[in-house]
Every structure is written in C-alpha cells, then in structure tokens.
Amino acid sequence: MSDQRAIDAVPVDDQAAWDALVTRFTGLLWSAVRAYDLSPADAADAVQGTWLRLLESLHTIRDPDRIGSWLFTTAKREASLLSRRHRDERLVADLSDAEHARLAPAGAAHADPVLAVLSADEGRRLWQAVDEMHEPCRSLFRLMATAPDAGVHQLAGRLGMPSGSYGPTRGRCLNRLRTMLIAREATS
Amino acid sequence: MTRHPTAIDDESLIAALRLASGSDPVPARVTTAAHATFGLRLPGATQARSVATPVPRGVRSAEGARLLRFTAAELTVELEVTSLDGLVDLAGQISPCPEAGTLVEIRTLHLTESRVLSSTGQFAVTGLPPGWFSVVCRRPECPPVVTTWTRIRP
Fold first, then answer.
1. Which of A4, A9, A87, A170 is most enclosed, with most CB atoms within 10 A?
2. Residue A76 and residue A68: Cα distance in Å, rounded?
3. Chain A residues inside the 8 Å CB shell of B136
C-alpha cells in the first residue's frame, strides 16, 4: 500500500493530492451511494456533493488517515438525504441546517470497520460466503450486484417472487450474510 | 485489525458486494467532475451555512418557490428558488446591505454568473442548470463570503 502512505503523508493542498484522492476513492463512493437505490443522475449528484463537502472541510481535517472513512460516511449521508427527498417529490431542498454541523471529521471513526469490508480481499471473501448460501439468497445477491439499475419489480420477477416479497427477502438474506461474516470472524 | 461485521448496515454490505463484483463502473463524467472540483476551492473565504427557513406567516410565496437562507458572522444570504423549463431561477437578498461595489457570483459546476449587487442588496439570475450551486459575496476590502454548496433539482 505504498500509494496509501504517499496520499496520507501529503496534505490535500494541491491538485495532484486531490487527484490522488479522487482516483483512490471514487469507485468506493459510487458503490456507497448506489446502494441507496439512486438513479445514475442522483448517484452522480451524491458523489459530487461528497467531494464538495470535502472541499468545504479541507481546512478542518486534522487526520489525513481518516479522509477515506470521512468521505464514505459523508457519501452515505448525501445519498440517504437524496433518497428521502426523492420519495418526498419536493422541488428542492438540501443538506440544511445542522447537517453541516454534524460533518465533524472525528464523527467518521465508526466507518473504519465498514471500509475494511469494502477492500478487495474482503470483497472476495464476501462473495465466497454468498456462494455458500442457499436460495433465494445466492441468486438474489448475484442479481442485485450484476443488475444495479433493475427495479424491484424486475428483480422480483427474475427471482420468481412477488414484488412485495423482494424487500423483506433481501433484508433476511443480508442478515444471514452478516451472521456468516461474524461466524467466520469468530473461527478465523 | 478488529472488525465488527454486526456494525455494517445493509447499504454498506450491498456496496461491498457490488464493488467486488465490478459490474457497476463509475461513469466517466462522475470522475471528471470529481477531479475538477478542486478548482472550485476559495481559500480564505468565510462560509455562510444553511439555516432553516420558516415560512413567514401571512406571506404567500410564488407557486413552488423555495426559500433558502445562509448565515455567516457578518451577513445573511437569502435566496428564493423557482424553476422553469427544468432550469433554475434565483432571486437573492444580502443583508445587511453591503457597501457599493459588492459583487455576487453564482457558481455552478459548469458556469459562473456575476452580478453587481443592487443598492438594496438584491440580485437575480435566471436559467441556471440544475444541480449544485453556491453564491459568493465579494465586498471591497473584505474576504469573500461563500454559501455552502446546495443542490437544486426541479
């Protein structure tokens, strides 16, 4: 991880340091916001909003090691706000009032274990766990991952279940996967 | 490293599965915009933060208009946002009214519009592209005051 040390050692005060962050984290941020079932346009806004928040907060970031988890947490917040707003169907709104105040750099610490799961090694282990799962979870996860733009109706149809069952089934499968990860953790 | 899988929420787990499967690549325009964002930095500017805007009693705003308010220590920026044909119109008021010669810049990711502030502290722009925007108030002899970036989608 030599590139990681290089990034962490350099304060983000020039375009090259910024570009290094973008190269390293944009894929992660895109996946983070897309998990909120955002359209490509809304997901693009959420990722862009995350970089704008970093720009506004650069002077407050004291620990460069935390930029990754800070970005991840911020992206999830932006996506969650957009996702809620979408359901409200209102003209405009924004990250308002206290939302900015809560963007304290120190508040991102809890994202670290999550970031570990988003590493390439852990990703492979995650899919190994999925491969061991029974149906419908195995097919559901494969479909969910490979058809990110498919709607609930389409996904449910391909899995042969009523649309209303997709959400609860996905929730149960995610819980099972989480439990499998804990079990592996305990025996490793 | 200590990990706590129980702390992983559904969305993070879904993100991890998708990221590892590599089947949802980042669109090039998202990456390009991210790189360009650094160019929007305004070193030394004071930030005006978004605050809640209660609808004033007895005042009927234009249909679909939304009021936004941003405050810094020394001034307040108020914006009325309306939308026409998918584009965004902004009517703004800066108070207390800054001295003559104050410029206002309305920045989007793609273009910046400049206005000389009226003697009553007002400004307006029409036909902005939807998306992220920020307003910069440049008073003579003072550091610029910039609103937090705000997203508008009609």
1. A170
2. 12
3. none
Q: What is the mean pLDDT of chain A?
A: 80
Annotation: CATH topology of A2-107: Rna Polymerase Sigma Factor; Chain: A (1.10.1740)
CB of B152 within 8 Å of any CB in chain A?
Answer: yes
Kindly list the domain boundaries of chain A, sorted by start residue.
Answer: 2-107, 120-187
Q: What is the pLDDT of residues B94-129, one digit of tens each?
A: 999 888 889 999 999 988 999 999 999 999 999 999
Closest CA to A116 of A125, A127, A128, A104: A125
Domains and CATH numbers, chain B: 45-54+64-152 (2.60.40.10)
Topology adopted by domain A120-187: Arc Repressor Mutant, subunit A (1.10.10)
Residue of A nearest to B39 (CA): A15
CB contact under 8 Å between A26 and B10, yes or no, is no
Q: Mutation test of the interface with chain B: which of A23, A30, A112, choosing the one with the most B Cβ atoms within 10 A?
A: A30
How much is the pTM?
0.83
B66-71 and B46-51: which strand pairing? antiparallel
Q: What pLDDT is stored for residue A127 in this prediction?
A: 92
